[in-house]
Amino acid sequence: MQEITGSTQDKTFSTNRLLKRSDTPFVGNFKSYGGLRTEGWKKESLDGKPLVSVVTVVRNDVANIEKTILSVLNQTYSNVEYVVIDGNSTDGTLEVIKKYAKYIDLWVSEPDEGLFYAFNKGVDLVTGEWVQILNCGDFLYNNTVFADIFEGKKIDVDGLYGSAACYVNGRMAIVEAHEDLYEKAWQGMRLIHETLFVKAEIIKKFKFDTKYKVSGDGDFVLKCVSKGYKFRKVNVVVFETGPQGYSAKHWRLARKENWLIARSYYPGLKTDLFNLQGWVYDEVFRVFKRIMSAVGVYDFLKKYYRRYWGDKIMREKYHYMVVDEKNKN
């Protein structure tokens, strides 16, 4: 399939470089929707250039949606499908999405029943070979992420995952992905879901269990791992985290769901002890933080810890290196 010629479509962005006319424009049963597919455009995988589908879900995040969108559109890789699921935003988010409608393959805006319902809606709508879920407020790390992973590569596994740029000890750091997801799978999901690219047929088959409010992504990954699907680490920093995530804000619920998920696939005493230890640590730390804050010494202790112990401890735990922003692409 050749790039389109003689078209008014702008080829500046990753989603507009390889387009083909569809016999029938997309028609859906949604409150509000639009995008390239509704105008009669489609895409397909090519040799050495598989179609990579990205799903972003959002509700009322006008401050971050444009940066997330542009991190996808500005990829140098030229075979990208982008689906945006909006949960009936009222703060101007939808207006930003519509601003980029001629570069987004499909956007949908309507009320939904929660995060993982929205994930599943997006998964149902993608047509690519590989699927990534990129939350609003998170951003692809640089413009060559997709090209570095997929361009001309022979891929013989079911999923690929990389590293992430996250805030650790108050500094942006590259957190290295675990080499092996299987040996310690009983500890839970050992990757960050935004770094994961999974074959479309797998994610469409299993989807996300909507009984979970925070950890449906962990359930999906452990389900795949426990069933023997093969995921491989790639030496690529995939994305950069934005503001504090939903699971961090609802940490107690996340702990509960993570424990239940781990037990459902890897039941046993070591699974229970590992999750109990993590839960007790979180509870004790938060009590300590409240007491130290009340007496006005928490900030001092935090600075002291980070300066003398924190960096060493966290490096051993997360295998990270501090980002030099000047050298970031």
> What oligomerization state is this entry in?
single chain
Largest pleated sheet = 11 strands, mixed
N-to-C span: 31 Å
Class by alpha and beta content: alpha/beta
Number of strands: 13
CATH topology: Spore Coat Polysaccharide Biosynthesis Protein SpsA, Chain A
Please tell me how large the radius of gyration is.
Answer: 21 Å
Q: List the uncertain runs.
A: 1-7, 325-329
CATH H-tier superfamily: Spore Coat Polysaccharide Biosynthesis Protein SpsA, Chain A
For the record, the CATH class is Alpha Beta
Determine the mean pLDDT: 88
> Share of helix among residues?
25-40%
> What is the number of domains?
1
What is the CATH architecture assignment? Alpha-Beta Complex
The geometry reads as globular
- Helices and strands, in order, run as EEEEHEHEHEEHEEEHHEHHHHE
Strand content: 15-25%
Number of helices: 10
Protein name: Glycosyltransferase 2-like domain-containing protein
Domain Glycosyltransferase 2-like: 53-136
Organism: Candidatus Magasanikbacteria bacterium RIFOXYD1_FULL_40_23
InterPro entries: Glyco_trans_2-like, Nucleotide-diphossugar_trans
Outline of the structure:
This protein is an alpha/beta fold.
Q: How does this structure look, described?
A:
The model is unreliable at 1-7 and 325-329 (pLDDT under 50). This protein has one domain (14-327): Spore Coat Polysaccharide Biosynthesis Protein SpsA, Chain A (Alpha-Beta Complex). The strands form two sheets. Strands 2, 4, 5, 6, 7, 8, 9, 10, 11, 12 and 13 form an eleven-stranded mixed beta sheet that branches. The chain has a two-stranded antiparallel ribbon with strand order 1-3. Helices cover 36% and strands 19% of the residues. The chain is globular. It contains ten helices and 13 strands. The chain has 329 residues and is α/β, with parallel strands linked by helices. Helix 6 (216-226) packs parallel to helix 8 (251-265) and helix 8 (251-265) packs antiparallel against helix 9. Residues 53-136 form the Glycosyltransferase 2-like domain. InterPro entries: Glyco_trans_2-like, Nucleotide-diphossugar_trans.
